[in-house]
Amino acid sequence: MNSLRRRLILLLVASIVGVVGLATAAVISVRGGGPPPELTVPWIAQQMELVVRLQPGPVPDVLNVQLTDHPASGKVARAETAMLSDILRRRGFDLRAIVNDKADEPGQVASVQLPDGRWAIMEVPHVKPPRREWLVLAGWISLIVAGATAVSVYFTSVLIRPLEMLEAAVSKIGSDGVLASVPEVGSAEVKATAHALNQLSARLKTAMESRMRLVAAAGHDLRTPMTRMRLRAEFLDDDREKWLHDLDELDRIADSAIRLVREEVNQDAVEPVDLERLVRDIAAEMRSLGHQVSADHLDKVSVRAGALGLRRALRNLIVNAATHGKGCSVSLTTPDGRAVLAIADHGPGIPPELLNKAFEPFFRVNPARWQSIPGAGLGLAIAKEIVERYGGTITLENLPGGGLLQTVGFEAV
C-alpha cells in the first residue's frame, strides 16, 4: 500500500463503485415497490369497466381477466381497495371491489364482483424483481468493478507518468553525475517535466565539465612554479632535502588530481574481465615490489568492466591496504551470483566516525602520515569512481580483531 499507483487505483475504484452502488440502491428503493397506486388503480378500474360492459358476452383474452365464483385470497390492501371502489362508483358502477396482497410473492390482485355474482380477478401491474436477483446484482457490481479498475489503471498511469519519468531519469544518473536525456513527448505537463529535467542535466554537465577543467588546469599549472622552485632548491645549502621532499609531495598531488579528472572523462570499453586472473596478477606485482600481499581463496569469475580502469582501481585498494595496513590478504568469492572481492589488512583500521569520509579526495586518517607515506590521498577516491562507474559497490568496515576490510562487489557474468 506504499505505492502511489496502488493508492490512486484503489481510490478511483472505490469512488466509482461507491457512486454507482449508491445510484443502484436509490433506483432499487424507488422501483422496488412497483408503480404507485395512483397509476395502477385507475388502469384496473378501466379494465374492469370494459369487462362489465362486455357482459354477458365472453371476455377477450387480451384483458387477462379470470372469472371465478369467489374473490382472490390474501391480505386486503385497504387504501387501494377504497381507491378502486371510489373510481368505479364515480364511473357509475356500484360494484364491490377488493384489492389483496399476494401471499407468496410481491404484487397485488384486484377482485371486482360483476352484476351476475361472479368475480373478475386481475393482477395489478407490478415491476417484479428478476429471478436470482442476487446473482444479477453480483454480476452488475462485478462489471462495474472491472470497468472501474480498467479506467483507474489507465488514468493512474497518465497521472503518475511524470513521477515515473523523474524516477527513471534519476536512476540513470551516470558516474559523472549527469542525468540522461529525457524525450520531450506526451501531454503538456509531461513535456514541461521532461524539458526541466533536460535543462537540469545540461546545467549539471556544464558544472561538472567546468569543475574538471578547473582541477585539471590547476594541476597542470602547478607544475611550472614547482619546476622553478625545484631548480632554486638545488642551489640551497640549508634544508635542501626538505624543500625537495615537499616539492615531490606537491608533484604527486598535482598528478593525482589530473588522474582523477581523467578517470571521470576517459572510460574504457566495457567487456568481460577475468577477475580472478586480474587479482592474481596484481597480488604478484605487489609482492615483487616488496609489499606483503597474500592471495587466499580465489573463485573463478568474470565481471563486465573496463580492464584498464578496473585494474587501476583494484591496484589502488591493494596498495592502500599494503602500505597503511602493514600487509593484506585478498580473497574472491561468488555468493548469490555476485563477485565479492575482500581485501583485509593488518593495520589499526579507521575510526568509525571517519569511515564515511574515507572516500573523500585527499583524506588521511592521521595527517602526520602525510610525510611518512607517499601519496596524495586520492587512491580510494579514484577507486570508488571507477568501481561505481561499472556498476559495482565498494564498502569499508573495521574488523573485530583489528584491521580494515575493503569489500568490492560486482554482478558476475
What's the short story on this structure?
This protein has 413 residues and is α+β, with helices and mostly antiparallel strands. Helix content is 53%, strand content 15%.
Q: What is the topology?
A:
Blueprint: H1 4-31, H2 37-54, E1 66-68, E2 75-76, H3 78-90, E3 97-101, E4 108-113, E5 119-123, H4 133-171, H5 188-233, H6 240-265, E6 271-274, H7 275-288, E7 293-298, E8 302-305, H8 307-324, E9 328-333, E10 338-345, H9 369-372, H10 379-389, E11 393-398, E12 404-411
Main location: membrane
Domain Histidine kinase: 217-413
Keywords: ATP-binding, Cell membrane, Kinase, Membrane, Nucleotide-binding, Phosphoprotein, Transferase, Transmembrane, Transmembrane helix
Keywords:
413 residues; five-stranded antiparallel sheet; rod-shaped; EC 2.7.13.3; nucleotide-binding; transmembrane helix; kinase
What would you say this structure looks like, in words?
GO terms for molecular function: ATP binding. It catalyses: ATP + protein L-histidine = ADP + protein N-phospho-L-histidine. It is found in: Cell membrane. Residues 157-209 form the HAMP domain. Its EC number is 2.7.13.3. With 413 residues, this protein is an alpha+beta fold. It is 53% helix and 15% strand. The strands form 3 sheets. Strands 1-5-4-3-2 form a 5-stranded antiparallel sheet. Strand 11 (393-398) and strand 12 form a beta hairpin. Helix 2 crosses helix 3 (78-90) and helix 7 crosses helix 8. The radius of gyration is 46 Å and the shape is rod-shaped. It starts with a helix and ends with a strand. The model is unreliable at 368-376 (pLDDT under 50).
